[in-house]
Design goal:
This protein has 253 residues and is an alpha+beta fold. The protein has one domain: Clam (outer membrane lipoprotein receptor (LolB), chain A), CATH 2.50.20. It is 23% helix and 38% strand. The protein is built from five helices and twelve strands. It has helices at residues 2-21, 39-46, 53-60, 226-237, 242-252, and strands spanning 28-38, 65-75, 78-83, 105-109, 114-121, 124-131, 138-146, 149-158, 162-169, 187-193, 198-206, 222-224. The protein has a twelve-stranded mixed sheet with strand order 7-8-9-10-11-1-2-3-4-5-6-12. Strand 10 and strand 11 (198-206) form a beta hairpin. Helix 4 (226-237) packs antiparallel against helix 5. The longest helix has 20 residues, at 2-21. It is globular and about 55 Å long.
């Protein structure tokens, strides 16, 4: 009996040793993110809960959630976030059309904390060259599995008042994430902005052979930095009240 237990113990130790030796830490690949915006909750929030005949008809004609997909390719510290596959399920929103930031392209160099983004504001394209927003994360003990990866939760405040919940995995060593979310010790696979009713969650992680030189920054659009873009937005839609503020906030994420 003791001999059998000893053999079993040796087998377990050997198996754990082999598993540890073959732990894979991804440095390149592709992630699909599903972005969801709760349209009805956001609309109610921006209208301060008040409803008239126009907002009532608008709300009844829209889906509760607007779902879009983005592809995020990464190789070491170079990343490219861009629109992915079309959402073919559900009814398209006949009133709003593509929302702000639904066509964003974000190229990032995480080692130098620089990014080049292409952002569409109505019919005008901008190419925004600037530094990546530094985020002061507070890592917690809460964990969650996303797209097959064990992730740890972190919280932060950005843009003075936007509360962010993120889940990252250290099994993917590139410290990036969707849009401009980054700065954790691993890849961010989930982001939630609870008060803005927006989430991004990875649906799959593909071990694609991504070369850094294949990740190209966007070039088409009027060149600006973040300060210049915000000034242009404030001038054109800053007087729209809550709706204008929400649009600028979405574009600036």
């Amino acid at each position: 009996m003791k001999k059998k237990l000893s053999l079993m113990t040796l087998f377990i130790v050997f198996a754990l040793s082999v598993q540890a030796q073959h732990t894979v830490f991804l440095q390149q690949g592709r992630i699909e993110y599903e972005k969801q915006l709760n349209l009805q909750a956001r609309m109610k929030q921006l209208s301060n809960g008040e409803e008239n005949s126009w907002t009532e008809s608008l709300r009844k004609g829209m889906d509760q959630f607007q779902t879009t997909y983005f592809d995020y390719s990464f190789s070491n510290n170079t990343t490219l976030y861009k629109p992915g596959r079309e959402n073919t399920t559900g009814t398209k929103n006949p009133f709003w059309g593509p929302g702000p930031a639904e066509e964003n392209v974000v190229y990032s160099r995480l080692d130098s904390m620089q990014s080049i983004s292409q952002k569409k504001v109505f019919e005008q394209l901008f190419v925004v060259k600037d530094s990546i927003r530094p985020i002061r994360w507070k890592i917690t003990d809460e964990t969650r599995k996303i797209a097959g990866f064990d992730c740890r939760r972190a919280n932060a405040i950005i843009m003075d008042s936007v509360y962010v919940v993120a889940f990252y995995t250290d099994a993917i060593t590139t410290p990036g994430g969707p849009e401009s979310f980054s700065g954790l010790p691993g890849m961010i696979l989930g982001v939630a902005l609870p008060h803005e009713h927006i989430t991004w969650f990875a649906t799959k992680v593909l071990v694609d052979d991504i070369k850094e030189d294949a990740l190209k920054p966007p070039v088409k659009g009027k060149p600006v930095n973040n300060k210049e873009l915000n000034a242009a937005l404030a001038k054109s839609i800053g007087k729209w009240g809550n709706w204008g503020k929400a649009y600028i906030q979405a574009i600036s994420l």
